[in-house]
Amino acid sequence: MHKVALEDLSDPDTLNLLRFAFHSPEKLKPAKSRQQLTEEVAGKFAAISEELRQRGNEPHVVAHFVNRMIFCMFAEDIELLPKGVFTDLLERALKNSDDLQRKLSSLFAIMRVGGAWGPEDILWFNGGLFDDDVALELTPNEIKMVYEAARKDWSDIDPSIMGTLFERGLDPSKQSQLGAHYTDRDMIMKIINPVIVEPLEREWDKVKNKINEELKKAEQYEALKPDEKTTKKDLTQNARQATAARNRAQKVYNLFKAKIKSFKVLDPACGSGNFLYLSLKVLKDFEQKLNIYGEAAFKLTQSIPEISPANIYGVEVNSYAAELARVSVWIGEIQWIKKHGFTFPGNPVLKKLENIVCHDALINEDGTEYVWPKATVVVGNPPFIGDRKMIAELGEEYTFKIRKLYEGRAPGGSDFVCFWFAKALDYIKNGDLERCGLVSTNSIRGGMNRFVLDEISKDFHIYDAWPDEPWVNEGAAVRVSMISFSRTTMLPVRLSGSSVSKVYSDLTSADLGEDLTKSGKLKTNKDVAFIGTMKNGGFNISGELAREWLCLPANPNGRKNNDVLRPWTNGMDITRRTSGQWIIDFKPDGTLEWASLYEAPFEHVLQHVKPKRDHLRRKAYREIWWRYQEPQKKMREKLSKLTRYIVTPRVSKYRLFVWRHSSVIPDSACVAVCKDDDLTFGILHSKFHTLWTLRLCTWLGKGNDPRYTPTSCFETFPFPKGMEPNVDVTVDGNPKAVAIAEAAKKLNELRESWLNPEDSIKRIPEVVEGFPERIIPVNKAAEKALKKRTLTNLYNDMPTWLKNAHKQLDDAVADAYGWSRSLADEEILEKLFGLNQSRSQ
Description:
The protein has 841 residues and is α/β, with parallel strands linked by helices. It contains 30 helices and 23 strands. The strands form six sheets. It has a nine-stranded mixed β-sheet, sandwiched between helices. Strands 12-19-16-17 form a four-stranded antiparallel β-sheet. It has a four-stranded mixed β-sheet with strand order 13-15-14-18. Helix 2 packs parallel to helix 7 and helix 3 packs antiparallel against helix 7. The longest helix has 39 residues.
């Protein structure tokens, strides 16, 4: 049942209901939604693209061909092509497929220029999508699939399907995506609404109030009725006043309409045009609302829409995606025109959109900075490439050029997306841009990435943000932040859809407490915590092979292999069970001549590391191939003076700290804290440090796990007075320190007993001295049971004994700070921030 109220008749969707009821009642039958149809047909055409590619067709040609067929289906259902002309071709080919390729080629050729095609007259569709007449041969089964798709109603297809199919038809590595996942429009609207729609609506409300005030004045003058005291002059004056008021009202209206007509939207990483298509739609909807108002208020004839694809600007480095962005925008334009009852464009149907350009959005070929087209606002979804992947994906030369060009505006270690934020900020600073809304990975909230948000927050305003939203990028689930910022403070401020007083640069609310992004590094914490070694090559070996080499006779230099073999730990060794891996370690300063004397380890590195290093662009990594890329010399010097140290995974669901023997080499997936006392261990494992890290960390991965960094999480954390990392605390003389150390020791012992029950394991000394003993299960049953005993599983369950142990530790740390044991989390953060500020001055 459809109910139509009279006041809803101005809505095109409501009018379409009535139109269908009289002219196409079958369209009112329950059917698949637009999104379901789009996903279904996208899946089928993605499968066809895969088969065409497997038959040896070049991916670009496949993508172009498939999208031409889709556009033909759309064009015939929206009656730009003669009704059924494309579907009839396919239907005849079901009986005889031999001539379909030639006929499709002929149709594409005439669509490029327009003219007679058999008995039919074909409109001039123009080049771009129909830049050639290439058609690929389809198998009978593929023809059947295309025919079944063509019989559906394509008139309301989501334009984003064009880009979706192009990307998946083009790139064989994206087979996991064949099944059509395209960017959800509700997600895109979380950028478009605050950047385009809502500011325009707010401005229009103010303008409309001014207009209505003038019109009310006009009505009041016109309502004055003549009496015996009224002269002809009075009546004339009233009429003039009324006319003047109406003229003022219309002038305000016309000025605002002119402003909207000149409104420009730029997407400087437009891909296949999803942001542009939706931006165009909301602008046209807004203009139509103004036109309807003007027709009623000023007795105007029906206004012809002036907002068009000329209001939309895009920059895209891939030429095929740029072409598809143009087509997607035109499909959206045509759909809007049909829906609102206006005349279709013609001569040609698909006009060249020179304002969607194929170019690198950041840099010119000569190394100078690319100048963006002048626009009112910027929206978009720039590429998600982490700083460490930039060289691999973009090349060393390009990466270094970009980092040098944007030096001072985005740190060299920033993710690629940050350069778009930095560039947009420049345009806002120069007054060339009003607002900007961009999508980034949610790691922009912390670390080096946050630099660009810090800069934005200095003089301008983040007024709408979604800090942590699900997104799909090239088939992979990621977490993103969606950030809108502006020159003005006049816009309402929201965080995750809720009103707040201010959004800090880490995308937290000012209503929750202090701005922890202002936290400074503390001298007392310097050079204590380090990211572990980065190998860049296959230095890892199994424990079995390590023990075999440890037992070999002495090398030509008279030394055994235990000089260059060490146990190894990474993040998963902490959160799960230890992998038992070892690593070859030729020291930070080991020469090639010295390393070669350790025969078996050296031969392994020669075979498994050097071939990979030979292809690296960076000279040092190529030439010093037997050593780690980043050996962390300062960390190793610190660890050499200890018998054990504290280690935590950089990325994990829970902030876990464990002990490691000082002979164990930590991987870059860990942070090593070069302290061996239970006091430091306890403070780090308290809720005070955990709360602090969760506000200053970055976030990573599908699981949206917190990422711990030495600089932002450790070096800013204010330890209790007298218990700082650079202080050698005599625990025995400090009751509060004793309480923390004892609680920490108890927590560790309880966890270790649960992880490795004495009745299920046996401890075996290593084959040579100087290394930690091995823990192995006593039998198969114990081995099976122990696999489930991991720290992650333990903290998932959080048994009472573990809660109690942490409560005892937290109480002891609270006492050391001199704070109440019952402080709320935000009160704790406020107090910690106060300590940080007083100590970092």
